[in-house]
Specification:
The protein is an alpha+beta fold and 203 residues long. It is built from 4 helices and 8 strands.
């Protein structure tokens, strides 16, 4: 599954979302549109432990999205962080207020990466993505304490002052433009996305 291509197609139809749940549902529908044979589930429980016979034991972790397409298994964690914006897009009104917990988001994002790493260690047939879409420049603006730039290890160290140990890889961070939205005062607001790919574990 080419997730960058899916996001590009989604941005043409949905350049803005009301909420994180709105983003998740819209992405799920677009994946099915582009990959009709795929099976997509939201809030999907993944069992990590198995008994000696190979059956799943009690206890699971939930993913925002799980996609099965042929022999491919994809785990996704999806984030949507908002800045103040009032707009009318294709006859639909949007009124967004800024998320207040910008400074607390780094541990949340790292936790999502770690979750998929743990799944990949138990399920080597799974690849994963953590995706953040935002119109808040503080997430990508260089030089800020909580901005996502360089590598994810850099972000952790900058945020906590400690040597990163939470995740297995450093992960280069590359922002891409998602969409431009004009507000009710004709000001342009840029939406961008950050995608971290967590590849399958290979022996």
């Amino acid at each position: 599954m080419d997730i960058h291509s899916v996001l590009k197609l989604l941005s043409d139809k949905r350049p803005i979302f009301h909420s994180e749940a709105d983003f998740q549902f819209a992405l799920a529908r677009k994946i099915v549109d582009e990959y009709p044979d795929s099976h997509v589930r939201l809030e999907y429980p993944v069992h990590l432990a198995q008994d000696k016979s190979g059956r799943s034991e009690p206890g699971s972790t939930h993913l925002d999205m799980w996609v099965e397409n042929g022999s491919t298994r994809t785990a996704l964690e999806l984030k949507y962080k908002k800045h103040d914006l009032v707009a009318n897009v294709r006859c639909e009104n949007f009124s967004m207020t800024r998320d207040k917990k910008h400074t607390e988001f780094v541990p949340e994002f790292v936790s999502d990466v770690r979750k998929i790493e743990q799944i990949n260690k138990k399920r080597p047939d799974v690849n994963g993505y953590v995706i953040l879409i935002t119109n808040d420049h503080l997430y990508w603006e260089a030089g800020r304490k909580n901005s996502f730039e360089g590598t994810l290890h850099d972000v952790i160290a900058k945020n906590s002052g400690k040597t990163p140990r939470e995740i297995s890889h450093s992960y280069d961070l590359h922002w891409k433009d998602y969409s431009c939205v004009k507000d009710t005062k004709n000001r342009i607001h840029m939406f961008r996305y950050l995608l971290v790919e967590i590849p399958p574990v290979t022996s």
